[in-house]
Amino acid sequence: MKVPSTVFKIGLSASAVGLFAYLYLLKNREYEVCITYSALSAKLNVSHTILVKLIKNLERKGLLSIVKRYFRYKNSFSHRNCYRLIAPLNDDPHLPVREVISLPLSLDEKGLLLYLLYIAGEEGNTFMTKNEILSNFKPKPYKAFKSLCDKGYIKISRTGVIVQNFLKDNK
User: Fold this and answer.
1) Which CATH fold topology does 97-170 show?
2) What is each CA distance from 136 to 8, 13, 68, 117, in whole angstroms?
3) For the chain, percent helix, then strand, then coil, each to nearest 5?
4) Domain ranges of the chain
5) How far apart are alpha carbons 132 and 75 in whole angstroms?
6) What is the CATH number of domain 5-85?
7) Considering only 74-78, 96-100, 106-110, which range has the smallest mean pLDDT?
8) pTM for this model (two decimals)
9) Rg for the chain (alpha carbons), in Å?
10) Residue 68, strand partner residues
11) Cα 112 to chain center, whole Å?
12) Phi/psi at 139 (nearest 5 deg)?
């Protein structure tokens, strides 16, 4: 699955990266996702308020636009938000988005792990320090970084942060 590399270059929060990756999994051929806030927040284990802020942030950065879809329900009309995502770019790496999203991690941890997989080489080495990595996010996901270390998904070495090969069977 391809996720646009733009997502990793524009200073999003780790949660916003994770949310965008999840929406990218759900998209149809027209790059649209029609899902309610309540379904998204339940699936991602995020509060409604935080979810709305993350979606507004993605919209401000130009990664998605909100399209209202109107439909007839019983004797009245109702609407549902659909999110139109940007199309993939040609220089995107193949990231194991589906596998990362399915891991039992928080949205911050998923976004950070996707970013680390994006910048890591074949051996999993990023050749970047913790501070260099965290400086790409606003706000900095210190807790997510520590949690990924504690859970064994990443480790810190003298050459930089290394992503552990937890997807051996999927590659």
Assistant:
1) Arc Repressor Mutant, subunit A (1.10.10)
2) 8, 9, 32, 14
3) 45, 20, 35
4) 5-85, 97-170
5) 56
6) 1.10.10.10
7) 74-78
8) 0.80
9) 17
10) 81
11) 8
12) -75, 160
